[in-house]
């Protein structure tokens, strides 16, 4: 591809110069007066631009304006292509340089850092860490520090959440100068760099001074503000969920990425032995349906049993999205106390909600709903619901599979396709 682009560029340049050479003699003879030939110009400063302006004007002055415009477009395109080619070359060079340096850092230090992180002694001295890393003090450049941030984020994948050995990893960051780099960039750096750094800081369990965090939690840039508040939530022990309980949460939109980050943070907090936020008050003050559904799912994953029982109130919600999410949450949590409640409401639901209840009962797996699944198959008016009931029988337990096979023997030719769909592992999916 590069050879083709270079060939096109050279061909355009060659064409322009051939045309210029074939006409330059005539143009010099008849149009030397336009440039102020009696004047003397020295080729320095602004006169250089004037020289090329007159050269271009004399070279194409006898051509129609269409041809002159075409030549101008060709020249500008050649120059633009040259600039783009240079930019591409710089990007390729930087990408290769960064990849080479990152590979060097990982080969030299990564395994040693993993050993330090998992060391039983949580407060190794800086000298001991330097000795184990075989680290020679040096001043890393800014672009090298960005590579270090990627390496440290990757190192966090091997960090024990319940005992991440923060003291040792903090001293590693201090030793290589990463701590000073982050603090300097968060104060003086560009806003987009601050957002990326805050995410890296949170993922690497790095400790920031309270003064820096306090200056960023209310920043006017919404992305930086969100990133800082997520970090605050992970590190603060006095009142970590203060910003979730603000009234402004009702007016803040949650993107899919925001929801993923919050879910990951709640997971790390729960695995670290710390309490997750109280989700019921968040549900009560949230109006946007998408955020209500999100917090309902978080209750299913991390909430208490009392909070899960609170979701029963959404079984009769006029908002069918919330109602559907409530049924799904019972399956996520495998909350067997909800079985009887959902069964009592089953025949009041739409077909979509009925399928959600069936999937929730399958996930709960109490083992006593085989006859209910069979009854739903025989009496449902929707083939999708019939297939969901058959899928529940097939996956429920051995008794359910036996009932499934008996129903298959008695099924009509029209319904045989439903059984084949369920038995085929490729298409046995509740979303189909």
Can you give a write-up of this model?
- The chain is mainly alpha-helical.
- The chain has a domain at 2-97.
- The chain has helices spanning 2-30, 46-59, 65-117, 126-133, 142-155, 166-176, 178-188, 191-203, 210-216, 222-235, 256-271, 279-285, 289-302, 305-310, 320-333, 339-345, 351-364, 370-379, 383-396, 398-410, 416-423.
- The longest helix is centred in the first third of the chain and has 53 residues, at 65-117.
- The model is unreliable at 19-37 (pLDDT under 50).
- Keywords: Membrane, Transmembrane, Transmembrane helix.
- This is HEAT repeat protein.
- The chain crosses the membrane at residues 69-94.
Give the key terms:
21 helices, 0% strand, 69% helix, mainly alpha
What is the gist of this entry?
This protein has 432 residues and is an all-alpha fold. 69% of the residues lie in helices and 0% in strands. It contains 21 helices and no strands.
Topology:
Blueprint: H1 2-30, H2 46-59, H3 65-117, H4 126-133, H5 142-155, H6 166-176, H7 178-188, H8 191-203, H9 210-216, H10 222-235, H11 256-271, H12 279-285, H13 289-302, H14 305-310, H15 320-333, H16 339-345, H17 351-364, H18 370-379, H19 383-396, H20 398-410, H21 416-423
Helix pairs in contact: 1-3, 3-5, 5-8, 8-10, 10-11, 12-13, 13-15, 15-17, 17-19, 18-19, 19-20, 19-21
């Amino acid at each position: 591809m590069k050879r083709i682009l270079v060939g096109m560029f050279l061909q355009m340049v060659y064409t322009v110069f051939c045309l210029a050479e074939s006409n330059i003699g005539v143009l010099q003879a008849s149009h030397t007066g336009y440039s102020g030939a009696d004047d003397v110009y020295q080729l320095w400063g602004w006169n250089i631009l004037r020289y090329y302006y007159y050269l271009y004007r004399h070279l194409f002055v006898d051509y129609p304006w269409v041809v002159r415009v075409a030549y101008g477009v060709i020249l500008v395109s050649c120059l633009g292509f040259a600039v783009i080619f240079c930019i591409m070359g710089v990007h390729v060079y930087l990408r290769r340089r960064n990849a080479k340096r990152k590979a060097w850092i990982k080969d030299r230090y990564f395994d040693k850092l993993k050993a330090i992180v998992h060391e039983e002694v949580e407060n190794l001295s800086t000298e001991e860490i330097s000795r184990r890393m075989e680290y020679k003090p040096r001043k890393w450049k800014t672009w090298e520090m960005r590579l270090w941030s990627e390496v440290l984020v990757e190192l966090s994948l091997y960090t024990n959440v319940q005992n991440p050995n923060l003291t040792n990893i903090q001293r590693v960051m201090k030793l290589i100068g990463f701590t000073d780099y982050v603090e300097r960039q968060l104060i003086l750096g560009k806003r987009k760099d601050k957002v990326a750094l805050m995410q890296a800081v949170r993922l690497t369990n790095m400790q920031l001074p309270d003064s820096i965090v306090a200056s960023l939690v209310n920043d006017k840039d919404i992305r930086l503000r969100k990133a800082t508040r997520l970090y605050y939530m992970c590190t603060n022990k006095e009142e970590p969920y203060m910003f979730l309980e603000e009234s402004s949460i009702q007016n803040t939109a949650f993107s899919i990425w925001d929801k993923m980050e919050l879910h990951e943070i709640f997971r790390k907090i729960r695995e670290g032995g710390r309490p997750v936020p109280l989700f019921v008050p968040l549900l009560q003050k949230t109006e946007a349906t998408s955020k209500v559904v999100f917090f309902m799912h978080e209750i299913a994953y991390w909430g208490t049993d009392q909070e899960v029982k609170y979701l029963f109130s959404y079984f009769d919600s006029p908002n069918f999205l919330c109602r559907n999410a409530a049924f799904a949450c019972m399956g996520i949590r495998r909350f067997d106390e909800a079985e009887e409640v959902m069964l009592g409401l089953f025949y009041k639901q739409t077909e979509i909600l009925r399928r959600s209840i069936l999937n929730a009962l399958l996930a709960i797996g109490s083992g006593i709903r085989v006859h209910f699944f069979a009854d739903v198959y025989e009496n449902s008016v929707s083939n999708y619901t019939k297939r969901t009931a058959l899928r529940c029988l097939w996956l429920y337990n051995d008794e359910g599979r036996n009932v499934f096979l008996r129903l298959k023997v008695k099924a009509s030719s029209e319904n045989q396709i439903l059984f084949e769909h369920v038995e085929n592992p490729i298409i046995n999916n509740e979303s189909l």
